[in-house]
Structure formats: C-alpha cells, structure tokens
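EI: anyone free to look at a 139-residue chain?
SC: sure, send it
EI:
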Amino acid sequence: MASSLTCAGVVWAFLSFLCAATSCVGFFMPYWLLGSQLEKSVSFGTFRRCSYPVRDESRQMTVMVEQCGRYASFQAIPSAEWRICTVVTGLGCGLLLLVALTALMGCCVSELISRTVGRVAGGIQFLGGKCSCGGGMGM
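SC: here you go
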C-alpha cells in the first residue's frame, strides 16, 4: 500500500477526517440551542428540533410536543437566517468530508495528492475554519 503523503500529511488526513465526522454529527444533531419553554426542556438546530410548541385547536391552547424531528419543509425553518445557515453549514460539512476522504485515499494510493495540492487543500481548510469561526457574529 503506497502513499503519496508524508507523515505530516497522514496526520493531517486523519485529523481532517475526525473533524469532518465531528462537524457532520454536530450539524445533524438538534442541540445547537438549549432552553426551556412552557416548563419543558427544548433544543433545536438549523433543521431539527426537540420539544416544540404547537397549537391544539380542539383545546384552544398551545401544547408541547415532546419528541425530536426535522422541520416539515425547508420553508418551515423559522427564519431566513436559519435557512441560510442550514445551506451554508451543510455545504461546508460536505466539502470538509470530500477533502478529508480524498486525503484518506491519498494515504493508500500513490501519486494521488501532490505536495502542492496538499498544501493548497490544507490552506483552504485553515482559511475556511478562520472565516467560519468569526463570520456573521460580529467577532
């Protein structure tokens, strides 16, 4: 099994994969914001929510549905900002996973990743991490 990566490249590939897996799991979990509403614990993420209020027309009151689920449609996501966040975060996770899997393939296939391509991909990951950490939150 030949590799086109140096020792640093192999470490980068495995760390990239771990970061990609962690990011994807975090994206799909509904625990971005935690709180309480109507004396019940609630949480939600960009497109999933747990314990959410609904209007019960038969009793003319708001009741809490104590289960987790995704929004019924893309337009049901509460705000335009959350919809944008869903798309951008989903695309970011997809690209991160693509780069990480390509890097892992470079551990097994010779001449798949050149030194220049590896440096550019690492630089893109670094810049992407820097941009996403401080963007949009006034930091």
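EI: The mean pLDDT is 77.
SC: 👍
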